[in-house]
Amino acid sequence: MFDPSELTRKKSLRLFTSLKAGGPAELFYQARTVDDLAEASIYAQQNDIPTTILGGGSNILPSDQGVPGLVILNSTKAIEFQEGGVVISDSGVVLQELFLKTLQANLAGLEYCVGIPGSVGGALVSNAGAYRSNISEFLNEIEIAYQGKREWVSPDFMQFSYRDSILRKSDAPQATLLRIKFKLPTGDPKSMYDEAREYQRQRISKQPPSASAGSFFKNVYDKSLAESLTNLPENLKSAGVVPAGYLIESCGLKGRRRGGAMIGARHANFLLNAAGATATELRQLANFASDTVKKKYGVQLEEEVLYLGDWSRYLPMA
Fold it and tell me: Catalytic one among 26, 111, 281, 304?
């Protein structure tokens, strides 16, 4: 049961983010059950305390100045299987763990999730996905804590789009994702395993070992730009998709550094904390990459990573 006396002040968030950077939470609480998560969220909503939910910490960058309000570390981990391919997952479940459990139950649809870092809840916030798939495809319902109560709502609540949802907006409602209900089709275990293994092989070949947030920028959907790039693969040209890493690499930015921050030498859409980088250094390098791409190609890269907290003192890279 949630107890406000258990709230911790000025808790460093570095250990809870995959980029290993950022300042402290004004208030911090670790929720281990879905009831704890709901009660802490409702407490914050009823007391007008801004709330930030952390899952795997893979798609976020907290400011060096810290995050005001309450930061809840979502450590919930229950998964329930029901008849007809229905799966109910706590939002704190690791996304790859959910895939493995559904694979064991001969349920298909989440093969692309193998190797994607972070939690189920975090995946929903950014509508995570890969290989032309995304997490919102198989949703039935979502349980949320919103306006001081718990309720199940339609996926329409999230207003999903490409790598986006209402909870990524600057004016996002103070809603906490508690549990997610999926309906998955039955699949062939060997085919699912082979498909997931191929996805994992591709990820290993691209992803760096250093601390990162995964893909930092969203891919660009621009048919005319795609067709103008002579060495872009034909399947991407026909789909009108230009990978952000392609654009950054073509600007000669692989391996570029700013303090302890570095653009990946293996894959240019990975921003790395190579040597104790600050959140400011990481954001400055990301902005430099985005500005360079815009100058060369006329397109604005959009971050997949969310900047959390107080960035009022932030200055771009000179």
Answer: 304
Q: pTM for the whole thing?
A: 0.90
Q: Is 195 a catalytic residue?
A: no
Average pLDDT over residues 3-24: 94
Instruction: Give pLDDT tens digits for 238-294.
Output: 999 999 999 999 999 999 999 999 999 889 999 999 999 999 999 999 999 999 999
Which of 18, 26, 163, 210 is catalytic? The answer is: 163
Pick the CATH number of 79-189 from 3.40.50.2000, 1.10.10.10, 2.40.128.50, 3.30.465.10: 3.30.465.10
Q: Is the sign of the CA dihedral 153, 76, 277, 127 positive or negative?
A: negative
Q: Is 302 a catalytic residue?
A: no
Tell me which of 3.90.78.10, 3.40.50.300, 3.10.50.30, 3.30.70.260 is the CATH number of domain 207-308.
3.90.78.10
Catalytic residue among 89, 119, 210, 215: 215
Residue owning tokens 């996805």: 199
The question of whether 215 is a catalytic residue gets the answer yes
